[in-house]
């Protein structure tokens, strides 16, 4: 009976976490460059039930040997194993601002595990140590003329330096080169390549971190891409599918809840009625 409580409780916890994940995806359906989270739910290893019986061995000393008679297996519940970001490209939307950039995926090789690589904009981390990465190209020019993201983090060039454009009157070429109004080259927009994006840590505000700075995507073997000015990449959240999955998770949680209530009524009856006999 108590094992049933634990099994149902794991199901409720897993579906609650899945509901929170899907709710976060839906709330960011209109966030530029947002990458939806995907989860996988697995069951705990099954337990083998056995009946232990004592068997007397016909010897002079009359030894007793415990014999295990297999009965079957029992499931011990489920858990959310992984939460990984989906790096599939979102739809591009045209913008009226020259500081809006979008990455256009080209050929992104797969690693030995079959995971496709990902390209991201380079940013200076708020701590000043290392880099942060994003697909949200909704940049702006700060008071000192530097390109920054909505949280004020500096956009980095291909050499890891801050990019100073002084005003929004500049041009971004498809190959990442930035030119001023006089057609003079300012810098090359920093774009990094993650061969294994599953190893990236997702943070708030659409940022990603890596254990070490990622290499440049311009020099990555077999990687092709383009950068477009006056465009923003939208979220890759499928609103209709996410709502369907959210309702499924809610119904699963509700079903587990009713089973838990049934267990609770059974235990109440066992204590209040059977216990009086």
Automatic annotation (TrEMBL):
It comes from the Bacteria. It is found in: Bacterial flagellum basal body. GO terms for biological process: bacterial-type flagellum-dependent swarming motility. Keywords: Bacterial flagellum, Cell projection, Cilium, Flagellum. The keyword Nucleotidyltransferase does not apply. Residues 228-272 form the Flagellar basal-body/hook protein C-terminal domain. It holds the Pfam family LlgE_F_G_D1. InterPro entries: Flag_bb_rod_N, Flagellar_basal_body_rod_CS, Flagellar_FlgE/F/G, Flg_bb/hook_C_dom, FlgE/F/G-like, LlgE_F_G-like_D1. Residues 115-178 form the Flagellar hook protein FlgE/F/G-like D1 domain. One of its GO terms (cellular component) is bacterial-type flagellum basal body. Signal peptide: none annotated. The keyword Zinc-finger does not apply. Residues 5-35 form the Flagellar basal body rod protein N-terminal domain. PANTHER family: FLAGELLAR BASAL-BODY ROD PROTEIN FLGG, FLAGELLAR PROTEIN. Belongs to the flagella basal body rod proteins family. NCBIfam families: FlgEFG_subfam (TIGR03506). This is Flagellar hook-basal body complex protein FlhO. The gene is flhO.
